[in-house]
Amino acid sequence: MGDAEPAAADRNRWNERYAARRPSFDPHPLVASAVAAGLPGGPVLELAGGRSGSALALAAEGRAVTVVDVSDVALAQLRDEAVRRGLGPRVDCVCADAARLLAGGAHAGRWALVLATRFWDEPAFAAAASAVAPGGLLAWEALRQDEAPARRYRIRHGGLSARLPAGFTVLAEWATDPTTRLLARAPG
Ligand SMILES: C[S@@+](CC[C@H](N)C(=O)[O-])C[C@H]1O[C@@H](n2cnc3c(N)ncnc32)[C@H](O)[C@@H]1O
């Protein structure tokens, strides 16, 4: 597991939650949407994945998946489950702040799918969009902001597509209770 200076307060808060609750390892529905839309070959990057059932499902389909999260507890649980399922070599866990890891463009244009669910961080979203390979997909879900005042970690429905760089095609944007979801394709 890599280690890149995760923000201590977030890490501690999330570590406590993950230590206290049993994982389900269910994949997120955005994974099925992304696969149905068509993915080019290549690896998958999941930001703020926690103990991601999505990563396990994609690895089971043969994808190399990198999961980034600030919680080392979540990543240890994910790693154990990946090994238990024989998927260890395809699931790379990186303990890091998502935006910091992508800063500087080191990951630009590399990933067939960049996925984030139940996560909002504006710099991470911008960096994630530039990390998508040509013709690849950005799949993102964040908690929805419905009323003023603005709340941290939330965004209005429509706010994800509004922040896409030029050239992306919006394949779908849904409002669910209580989230907003986006599936978009990078220019190919
Ligand atoms: C609501 S959970 C969502 C987890 C998972 N994506 C899901 O849908 O179940 C938010 C996740 O974001 C992680 N996180 C919070 N801030 C982060 C950051 N700056 N960089 C990377 N991960 C972060 C937390 O550790 C936690 O796993």
TrEMBL record:
<protein>
    <submittedName>
        <fullName>Class I SAM-dependent methyltransferase</fullName>
    </submittedName>
</protein>
<dbReference type="InterPro" id="IPR041698">
    <property type="entry name" value="Methyltransf_25"/>
</dbReference>
<dbReference type="Pfam" id="PF13649">
    <property type="entry name" value="Methyltransf_25"/>
</dbReference>
<keyword id="KW-0489">Methyltransferase</keyword>
<dbReference type="InterPro" id="IPR029063">
    <property type="entry name" value="SAM-dependent_MTases_sf"/>
</dbReference>
<dbReference type="GO" id="GO:0032259">
    <property type="term" value="P:methylation"/>
</dbReference>
<keyword id="KW-0808">Transferase</keyword>
<dbReference type="GO" id="GO:0008168">
    <property type="term" value="F:methyltransferase activity"/>
</dbReference>
<feature type="domain" description="Methyltransferase">
    <location>
        <begin position="44"/>
        <end position="136"/>
    </location>
</feature>
